Amino acid sequence: MSLSVSNLNLTVRDGSTDRHLLRDISFEVGAGEILGVTGPSGSGKSTLLGVLGCLQGADSGQAILNTRGGAIDLTGDVSGKAGAKIRREHIGIVFQQPNLLSSLSVLDQLILVTRLGRIWPPSKIQRELHEAKARELLDAVGLLDMAARPVGALSGGQQARVNLARALMHNPALLLIDEPTAALDQHNAAEVTALITEMARTYGAATLYVSHDTDQLKMLDRQITLVDGRVQNPVAI
User: Fold this and answer.
1) Widest CA span of the chain, in angstroms?
2) How far is CA 102 from the centre of its chain?
3) pLDDT of 103-114, one tens digit each?
4) What is residue 119's predicted lDDT score, i.e. its pLDDT?
5) DSSP helix/strand/coil, 201
6) What does each C-alpha distance from 161 to 2, 13, 21, 139, 197 come to in angstroms?
7) In 98-185, which ranges are continuous DSSP H helix?
8) Which domains are present in the chain?
Protein backbone atom coordinates (compact mmCIF):
# COMPACT_ATOMS: atom_id res chain seq x y z
CA MET A 1 0.00 0.00 0.00
CA SER A 2 1.86 3.04 -1.30
CA LEU A 3 1.22 6.39 -2.95
CA SER A 4 3.00 7.87 -5.97
CA VAL A 5 2.27 11.47 -6.96
CA SER A 6 3.69 12.79 -10.25
CA ASN A 7 3.54 16.34 -11.64
CA LEU A 8 0.24 17.26 -10.03
CA ASN A 9 -1.15 20.64 -11.16
CA LEU A 10 -4.29 22.57 -10.31
CA THR A 11 -5.20 26.10 -11.41
CA VAL A 12 -8.42 28.00 -10.69
CA ARG A 13 -9.74 31.20 -12.20
CA ASP A 14 -9.96 34.11 -9.74
CA GLY A 15 -11.60 37.02 -11.51
CA SER A 16 -9.33 37.90 -14.40
CA THR A 17 -6.30 36.00 -13.12
CA ASP A 18 -5.27 32.38 -12.71
CA ARG A 19 -4.37 31.05 -9.26
CA HIS A 20 -1.92 28.15 -9.32
CA LEU A 21 -2.89 26.06 -6.29
CA LEU A 22 -0.64 23.09 -7.08
CA ARG A 23 2.45 23.26 -9.29
CA ASP A 24 4.20 20.09 -10.47
CA ILE A 25 3.80 18.31 -7.13
CA SER A 26 5.73 15.01 -7.03
CA PHE A 27 6.54 12.66 -4.13
CA GLU A 28 6.11 9.08 -2.96
CA VAL A 29 4.96 7.58 0.33
CA GLY A 30 5.54 3.93 1.15
CA ALA A 31 3.36 1.53 3.12
CA GLY A 32 3.43 2.45 6.79
CA GLU A 33 5.42 5.61 6.08
CA ILE A 34 4.32 8.99 7.47
CA LEU A 35 5.10 12.06 5.37
CA GLY A 36 4.79 15.42 7.08
CA VAL A 37 3.36 18.27 5.00
CA THR A 38 3.93 21.81 6.19
CA GLY A 39 4.00 25.33 4.81
CA PRO A 40 2.40 28.75 5.29
CA SER A 41 -1.34 29.37 5.00
CA GLY A 42 -2.46 29.31 1.39
CA SER A 43 0.49 27.20 0.27
CA GLY A 44 -1.67 24.34 -1.04
CA LYS A 45 -1.72 21.87 1.85
CA SER A 46 -5.51 21.55 2.10
CA THR A 47 -5.84 21.55 -1.68
CA LEU A 48 -3.38 18.66 -1.91
CA LEU A 49 -5.35 16.65 0.65
CA GLY A 50 -8.55 17.45 -1.23
CA VAL A 51 -7.16 16.10 -4.50
CA LEU A 52 -5.68 12.98 -2.90
CA GLY A 53 -8.92 12.42 -1.00
CA CYS A 54 -10.91 12.49 -4.27
CA LEU A 55 -12.78 15.59 -3.10
CA GLN A 56 -11.67 17.65 -6.09
CA GLY A 57 -9.94 16.99 -9.38
CA ALA A 58 -6.57 18.10 -10.74
CA ASP A 59 -5.83 19.69 -14.11
CA SER A 60 -2.91 17.40 -14.91
CA GLY A 61 -0.55 14.92 -13.34
CA GLN A 62 -1.29 11.66 -11.61
CA ALA A 63 -1.67 10.20 -8.13
CA ILE A 64 -1.58 6.41 -8.00
CA LEU A 65 -2.59 4.56 -4.85
CA ASN A 66 -1.38 0.98 -4.71
CA THR A 67 -3.85 -1.07 -2.68
CA ARG A 68 -4.20 -4.75 -1.85
CA GLY A 69 -6.53 -5.08 -4.82
CA GLY A 70 -4.40 -3.19 -7.33
CA ALA A 71 -3.55 0.36 -8.43
CA ILE A 72 -6.13 3.17 -8.26
CA ASP A 73 -5.83 6.51 -10.05
CA LEU A 74 -6.92 9.16 -7.55
CA THR A 75 -6.88 11.78 -10.31
CA GLY A 76 -9.14 9.89 -12.69
CA ASP A 77 -12.93 10.17 -12.66
CA VAL A 78 -13.50 11.01 -9.00
CA SER A 79 -16.74 12.95 -9.34
CA GLY A 80 -19.83 11.95 -7.40
CA LYS A 81 -20.23 8.28 -6.55
CA ALA A 82 -16.87 7.25 -8.03
CA GLY A 83 -14.89 9.42 -5.62
CA ALA A 84 -17.11 8.47 -2.69
CA LYS A 85 -16.53 4.78 -3.41
CA ILE A 86 -12.73 5.25 -3.44
CA ARG A 87 -12.85 7.13 -0.13
CA ARG A 88 -15.17 4.58 1.43
CA GLU A 89 -12.97 1.63 0.49
CA HIS A 90 -9.39 2.91 0.40
CA ILE A 91 -8.92 6.28 2.14
CA GLY A 92 -9.10 7.25 5.79
CA ILE A 93 -9.39 10.95 6.67
CA VAL A 94 -8.65 12.47 10.07
CA PHE A 95 -10.05 15.99 10.17
CA GLN A 96 -9.06 18.93 12.39
CA GLN A 97 -12.43 18.58 14.11
CA PRO A 98 -13.54 15.02 14.95
CA ASN A 99 -17.03 15.55 13.43
CA LEU A 100 -18.44 12.81 15.64
CA LEU A 101 -22.18 12.19 15.87
CA SER A 102 -23.42 13.15 19.32
CA SER A 103 -26.34 10.72 19.15
CA LEU A 104 -24.05 7.67 18.85
CA SER A 105 -21.86 5.86 21.35
CA VAL A 106 -18.11 5.64 20.87
CA LEU A 107 -18.45 2.09 19.51
CA ASP A 108 -21.23 3.03 17.10
CA GLN A 109 -19.15 5.90 15.66
CA LEU A 110 -16.83 3.25 14.23
CA ILE A 111 -19.47 0.70 13.24
CA LEU A 112 -21.32 3.36 11.24
CA VAL A 113 -18.40 3.46 8.77
CA THR A 114 -19.08 -0.16 7.81
CA ARG A 115 -22.70 0.64 6.93
CA LEU A 116 -21.92 3.25 4.26
CA GLY A 117 -22.64 2.04 0.74
CA ARG A 118 -23.44 -1.47 1.94
CA ILE A 119 -26.51 -3.68 1.71
CA TRP A 120 -28.85 -3.04 4.64
CA PRO A 121 -29.37 -4.67 7.02
CA PRO A 122 -26.03 -6.46 7.47
CA SER A 123 -26.03 -10.15 8.31
CA LYS A 124 -25.42 -11.33 11.85
CA ILE A 125 -21.90 -12.49 10.92
CA GLN A 126 -21.12 -9.10 9.36
CA ARG A 127 -22.36 -7.28 12.46
CA GLU A 128 -20.18 -9.46 14.68
CA LEU A 129 -17.10 -8.93 12.49
CA HIS A 130 -17.64 -5.16 12.37
CA GLU A 131 -18.07 -4.91 16.13
CA ALA A 132 -14.96 -7.03 16.72
CA LYS A 133 -12.96 -4.73 14.42
CA ALA A 134 -14.28 -1.63 16.17
CA ARG A 135 -13.38 -3.02 19.59
CA GLU A 136 -9.91 -3.97 18.35
CA LEU A 137 -9.28 -0.38 17.24
CA LEU A 138 -10.72 1.15 20.40
CA ASP A 139 -8.44 -1.11 22.41
CA ALA A 140 -5.48 0.02 20.30
CA VAL A 141 -6.21 3.70 21.02
CA GLY A 142 -6.87 3.03 24.71
CA LEU A 143 -10.62 3.63 24.73
CA LEU A 144 -12.15 0.16 24.87
CA ASP A 145 -13.52 0.79 28.36
CA MET A 146 -15.42 3.81 26.98
CA ALA A 147 -17.04 1.99 24.04
CA ALA A 148 -20.59 2.42 25.38
CA ARG A 149 -20.23 6.06 26.38
CA PRO A 150 -21.67 8.96 24.37
CA VAL A 151 -18.95 10.96 22.63
CA GLY A 152 -20.04 14.08 24.49
CA ALA A 153 -18.63 12.54 27.67
CA LEU A 154 -15.12 12.34 26.18
CA SER A 155 -12.34 14.91 26.41
CA GLY A 156 -10.87 16.57 23.32
CA GLY A 157 -7.91 14.21 23.34
CA GLN A 158 -10.17 11.18 23.62
CA GLN A 159 -12.34 12.39 20.75
CA ALA A 160 -9.20 12.78 18.63
CA ARG A 161 -8.44 9.11 19.35
CA VAL A 162 -11.94 8.07 18.26
CA ASN A 163 -11.44 10.15 15.11
CA LEU A 164 -8.28 8.17 14.31
CA ALA A 165 -9.85 4.79 15.07
CA ARG A 166 -12.82 5.60 12.83
CA ALA A 167 -10.48 6.52 9.95
CA LEU A 168 -8.81 3.10 10.21
CA MET A 169 -12.03 1.10 10.43
CA HIS A 170 -11.95 -0.02 6.78
CA ASN A 171 -8.17 -0.72 6.66
CA PRO A 172 -7.38 2.18 4.30
CA ALA A 173 -4.37 2.12 2.01
CA LEU A 174 -4.07 5.91 2.38
CA LEU A 175 -4.46 7.97 5.54
CA LEU A 176 -4.88 11.75 5.21
CA ILE A 177 -4.46 13.72 8.42
CA ASP A 178 -5.22 17.44 8.63
CA GLU A 179 -3.87 19.09 11.80
CA PRO A 180 -5.77 16.79 14.18
CA THR A 181 -4.22 18.28 17.32
CA ALA A 182 -4.87 21.97 16.60
CA ALA A 183 -7.37 22.25 19.49
CA LEU A 184 -5.35 20.17 21.99
CA ASP A 185 -2.81 21.19 24.61
CA GLN A 186 0.84 20.30 24.07
CA HIS A 187 0.75 17.12 26.17
CA ASN A 188 -2.35 15.66 24.49
CA ALA A 189 -1.11 16.76 21.05
CA ALA A 190 2.14 14.84 21.52
CA GLU A 191 0.27 11.74 22.72
CA VAL A 192 -2.16 11.80 19.78
CA THR A 193 0.66 12.32 17.26
CA ALA A 194 2.63 9.41 18.73
CA LEU A 195 -0.49 7.24 18.53
CA ILE A 196 -1.11 8.23 14.91
CA THR A 197 2.43 7.29 13.88
CA GLU A 198 2.18 3.97 15.72
CA MET A 199 -1.19 3.07 14.20
CA ALA A 200 -0.22 4.12 10.66
CA ARG A 201 2.84 1.90 10.80
CA THR A 202 0.98 -0.99 12.39
CA TYR A 203 -1.80 -0.96 9.78
CA GLY A 204 0.56 -0.20 6.88
CA ALA A 205 -1.20 2.90 5.56
CA ALA A 206 0.69 5.41 3.43
CA THR A 207 0.13 8.56 5.49
CA LEU A 208 0.19 12.31 4.88
CA TYR A 209 0.22 14.39 8.06
CA VAL A 210 -0.38 18.15 7.71
CA SER A 211 0.99 20.16 10.63
CA HIS A 212 2.67 23.44 11.56
CA ASP A 213 4.08 21.99 14.79
CA THR A 214 7.84 21.36 14.51
CA ASP A 215 7.84 18.96 17.47
CA GLN A 216 5.15 16.82 15.81
CA LEU A 217 6.91 16.89 12.45
CA LYS A 218 10.05 15.51 14.11
CA MET A 219 8.08 12.38 15.03
CA LEU A 220 7.37 11.59 11.37
CA ASP A 221 9.52 9.84 8.76
CA ARG A 222 10.00 12.63 6.23
CA GLN A 223 8.77 16.14 5.56
CA ILE A 224 7.93 18.30 2.56
CA THR A 225 7.23 22.02 2.62
CA LEU A 226 4.74 23.63 0.26
CA VAL A 227 5.24 27.26 -0.79
CA ASP A 228 2.94 28.82 -3.39
CA GLY A 229 1.79 25.37 -4.45
CA ARG A 230 5.28 23.99 -5.00
CA VAL A 231 7.22 21.36 -3.09
CA GLN A 232 10.43 22.73 -1.64
CA ASN A 233 13.39 20.43 -0.99
CA PRO A 234 12.11 17.31 0.86
CA VAL A 235 13.63 16.76 4.28
CA ALA A 236 14.40 13.45 5.98
CA ILE A 237 13.70 13.83 9.69
Assistant:
1) 58
2) 21
3) 899 999 999 988
4) 63
5) helix
6) 24, 39, 31, 11, 12
7) 106-115, 124-140, 156-167
8) 2-236 (3.40.50.300)
